[in-house]
Amino acid sequence: MAKDGYDTIDPQRSPSLSRAFSPLSAKDVCEDLIELYFRHIHVSFHFLFHQPSFLASFRDGSLPEVLFFGAIGLSARFSKHQSFASIPLRERGTPYTQEAERRLNLHSPSIVTIQTCMLLGAAAVSEGDSTTESIYFSIACRMAMLLDLPNAHADTCIEQEINNRVWWTVYASDTWSSTGVRLPRMMPHRDVPLPMSESTFLQLSPDTPPYPEQQFNASSATPAQAPHDSLLAHWKFLDQRLSQIDEVNTKAVSHELHGFQLLQTVESISLEMESWASSLPVKMRNTAENLTYWTKEGFGHIFVLLHVQYLHFSQLLFYQFLHRSTDSAGHTSVNFQNAQKCRQHATDLCNLIHLARENPLTDPLYSIAGHILTIASTVQLHILLFSSHAAEVQEARQLLERNFEFLTILRTYWSCLDASFSRFDAFHRACLRRQDDSHFQMDRWMLKFMLEFAEPVNDRAQVEDDEFVAHEEWSLASIGI
């Protein structure tokens, strides 16, 4: 039996499961790996599937094998089954990812191929392979546009919603991936229906027909008009800010944007983000009570990711103002206030992640948490080194200790976290070389540090020497020498 040009799985007889991959010979192990995928991977990397349908199709033998192997290639690292006990956590998914790659058919333009490319791109991210990640995501982008996915034929409401969610997943991944490799984005911003609430989506019947008219389109709706119970819909409005922030930081580094114009642009983006936060329904705002509420509803992990992303984007927006923010004579009060905003957002981010860790249902064991926490840790380091308030220094020291503890745990699961450790080490070495905060200056090294999270960074001293030489050459050329 085949679906969209792919063989489907039969857990009762498939030799791929029983012989080639012995841990998968037991059906309960396979189902556990699927559950782990939806707990730790789905949404944290992407939202590609309808969980009840995915599990039902595995049980009835209609799930494409390529999707099964792609999903468990990401989730196997979290399995506690004894059959994996002798395999390092990082390596448990490798044979399944390789099997998914072997089965990928780029001659089959379909939703399955797009989903597989997104899974394989996520696997590449986990290995710190930004080149392969970018290639897979680029294929997914092009295929989603070729199929006109939001308008593609759907027999059921579930299929219709999956098409929309996959489109938004590809769009968001294109934003993050393109920013990380410093290449132009591929996906256009289109009038695509926003995701419905998770509870509504999960309760859809396989027989529910498609909606004749889809509402809450991203281009025509404001955040305040998004479905009040859809965490993902509000998330999509936030996604659009990353490119703006990257552009501001890039132009600041190249001196295309500076002075009053820079402050004005940052303030404009900040007001948009603040407007987004204030327009959230009361139940979606970042409070411990709301985290408890959404966790009981079964969507606490999505709630955490929503606010982690907001706080991360905010620390990226204001990070450049940390530099010399302790020198009151050298900077205006606006710069100092922006630096304070960066510190507060970074502190709130750390506290939210550690609060989420207290519950197994919200524990953020995904790799992007490690990168984000590394950036927040550098902000805590700035507080530790330069704050004159004893309480702030003590809190920063405690957060740095807790951050390091959690990053050490994450590192056992994700190879790409080696780069985060090396990045923070490089940053710390830069701090030790100087007594001022010039190492927090927004430059090309800092842009790479903050955005190209899958790649290690060179020692800053070498980069600064190279930039000095390049600047001198440019200066001489500009006067005809």
UniProtKB/TrEMBL annotation:
Any one biological process term the GO annotation gives: DNA-templated transcription
InterPro entries documented for this protein: TF_fung (IPR050815), XnlR_reg_dom (IPR007219)
Predominant localisation class: nucleus
Compartment annotation: Nucleus
One Gene Ontology cellular component: nucleus
Signal sequence region: none
One MF term in the entry's GO annotations: DNA-binding transcription factor activity, RNA polymerase II-specific
Entry-linked SMART domains: Fungal_trans
Keywords assigned by UniProt, alphabetized: Metal-binding, Nucleus, Transcription, Transcription regulation
Domain Xylanolytic transcriptional activator regulatory: 133-201
CDD domains xref list: fungal_TF_MHR (cd12148)
Name of protein: Xylanolytic transcriptional activator regulatory domain-containing protein
Species for this entry: Calycina marina
